[in-house]
Design a protein that fits this description.
nine-stranded mixed sheet, about 280 residues, two-stranded antiparallel ribbon, alpha/beta, 11 strands, globular
Amino acid sequence: MTPHSDEHPETKGTSHTPKGLPPKATIDVKHVILVLSGKGGVGKSTVSVNLASALAAHGRQVGLLDLDIHGPNIPKMLGIENERPAVLENHMEPVHVLGNLSVMSMAFLLPDTSSPVIWRGPMKMAVIEQFLADVNWGTLDYLIVDLPPGTGDEALSIVQLAPNVQGAVIVTTPQDVAVLDAVKAIKFIGKLELPVIGIIENMSGMVCPHCGKTVDLFGRGGGEKAAQELGVPYLGSIPLDPEMVKAGDEGRPYVLRHADTPTWKAVDEVMENLVKRVES
């Protein structure tokens, strides 16, 4: 699945601007949820992976779409970076992690994990359209879309192309500089006339592996304070847990292997708050 060219996807580019917007993609999904952050390094992809896994563990049919085209990390975090999607009747099959969790990422289409993607905006929009319309997602309750940091082409394209976009989840960390960028992301979503489903404060303290107590490495409460000041929902906080970092590096979703830990309970609470906001 590539735009029509013999060039490799990591080097192809174009200066042509599409004439008019394509119609919404035909995909059977109830709720499309965008996950974004105002800056990098806040653990947005980790939150996306564990949020999608938690939804799937609670019986939802979930798709996870990795739209960080220049730095796709979702397959690594799920231990599927060496998988390649099958092509059946001109449609690609997403890679299935669980019976009810499937994934699509640019990483599956690159020659190797070190290949850079050097694309202009129109090429990104074309591949995003294909990731929606030409992938056999089946019937989904949720499509979780992991977007790159910032407010660029990918977010604009998915809003234009995806049906049933319910809104955005903003991931931040507690310190002021991260919250400031999160505020920019919230205002960006407002300009797209989408609701902010809620703010998640990630790395909100660290669970000590020795005593089990929480240490406030980056402070605490910045995300909740921003939510109150801006009048948007607060979905909860997730502590920084060394085991979650290890799980991502080893390709094992944290929430599927660490039940009843403080971090697992935090992720589960965030997921439940999201479901209440979306399905009520």
